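user: At home tonight, take the chain set out below, taking as long as you need, and be ready to discuss the fold:
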Amino acid sequence: MGKNRIVFISNAIIPRANIGGGSVVIYRHLKRFQNEGYDVLVIGLTHAIQMPESEFPLYIIQKKWWYPPLRRKTEYLTQLRIWFSYIAVSRQIKFKSNDIILAVLGDYSNLLALKIATKHEIPFNLFFHDDDIFNKYAEGSLLTQRFIQKIFKTSHCIFAVSKPMIELLKSKGAKKVELLYPIPDGNKIGVVSSWKERYSENIYLGYAGTYFNDLHFDILKDVTTIISESQNSKLYLISSISEESKRELSELTCFEQRDSFHFNNELFEFSVNELSTHLVFYSFKPDTELRMFTSFPSKFTEYVHLGIPVLIIAPTYSSIGKWAIENNWLAYIGNYSIEELTFMIMKLRSREFWENCSKQSLQIAKSQFSPVDIHTILLDNMDFN
């Protein structure tokens, strides 16, 4: 019969190599499956008129004008809509007994995955990266608690990105849950960061990723205020941001905004050549930044492979904060204050402390954040026939 075919289904994600968040994480797993000899295909439920880019065979199931609407409060219409999607995808793909379905928990396409899995007795597994179904945003999800329990009952394994997320899922009734950190690319540029004498006088911080002005501006302002005492210190925000955010940030000294790089390797080369430290942080606003409780920053698993110190600023009750405490992360601030931040920035200008942080990054890259080991966890816990 040959190797299992891996079928990824989503209404929100088309896996691609140089997109952030869940898209690139899933892409890396699928690419490894492909390189290991598995056939991989992607099913996308989308309203897009133009076909998205994909390195994998891509089957787009578009909404017909006469399909019923998706509504949380009308489960019957939602189920009817999923049935029509199932008919459409069945005309394009003949499912086989040794197929395995992968999906992202929280997408409404989970209902299509569930339909295919039960109709064809195919196992399906789920990634869970960001919680939007068990917090105050749950009412915006099309997955009712009844649907979620059905998914839990039928799915083989859910792969969660943090220990707090595992606890959350189990408390909600999930059966088999495994820890699977966001898979990094590993060090593809072939060089690691090394101490430069200019770091003793100045600090060159970089923050890359999603930026929300109402959540993150205050900490960035504090950082730039502190480092402005050194004439050449710099904080780079590497993110595509709104014009409103640019206006707010323009008042900061020692600050430079750069649009996101087109390729991740460009970001890594910039980091090794220009930065002394990467910044990973959450706000200290638990009522607003709910993702901090269970999500895990995928960029963090990337940066450690560069041998660059990573300054984590996050509450002790956040998932990355708990991880930092458990792993005795040297450059961690969990009880935020200007004094603590000033003290840590001064320490990062010490060669001995910087090199110890760099060594810690490389050690954790080889252990918990090894891409080979992370993918092996996925392989070992999927239900291969």
Notes: The chain has a mean pLDDT of 92.
